[in-house]
Structure formats: C-alpha cells, structure tokens
Amino acid sequence: MRMLGGAMPDDKPNAFEDVRKGLGLLFRAAKTTVEKLPTKDLEEVVVTSAREVGRAIENVGKTIEREVFGKSAGKKDGDATPPADPPKDDEPKPPDA
Fold first, then answer.
1. DSSP structural state of residue 92
2. Residues 6+ apart with CB under 8 A from 65
C-alpha cells in the first residue's frame, strides 16, 4: 500500500532535495532576521565592532610575542638597553677574552 503525499519507509532520502529545503529555510530565516534588524545607529555599531576586533588582534599579537618570542609586552625593539661600551685599551680585559 502506498502512502499519499509522503515517502515510503523503504525509500532512501534524497540528499539533493534535503539540501534544497534546508537552504531555503536558512535563507528565509536570514531574510526575516535582516528585516528585523534596526538600521538606526548602524554606523556606530560597525565602528565599535571594528575597534573591538582591532583590540582583540592586538591582544593576540602581544600574547604570541610574549609566549613564543619571550619578549615583555611593555618593551618594544627600540626599548632594549644598549650594549655595554667595549673596554678601552688601558682597561684590563676579562680573562675569557
């Protein structure tokens, strides 16, 4: 006996049809959501979001620099102490030199 309007239990699911229906539902949900979004103050939201993303990237960079390269977060390449002056001819040299 065949059921009207439905698939038989023995029938295999049609993957293409499932994808088509799923994408249709997804696009419908996205469209509904976009229609409900407030457009007021959108520029402020974008600027604030971009600023926060920039901060997050900066924090990741500092963490990588600290953990991988062993550099202090407060120091920059130019902040390092300068090397000691080489000894003058009249000063005694260290024994290992």
1. P
2. 71, 73
Burial status of residue 65 (CB atoms within 10 A of its CB: 0-12, 13-18, 19 or more) = middle
Give the C-alpha separation, 70 to 64, whole Å.
Answer: 9
Residue 44 CA neighbour count, 13 Å, CB half? 4
pLDDT tens digits, 44-83: 888 899 999 999 999 999 998 888 888 765 555 555 555 5
- Tracing tokens 């920039």 back to the chain, one arrives at 54
**CA–CA separation, 72 and 62 (whole Å):** 9
Question: What is the residue type of 15?
Answer: A
Tell the residue number behind the tokens 């407030």, with chain if given: 38
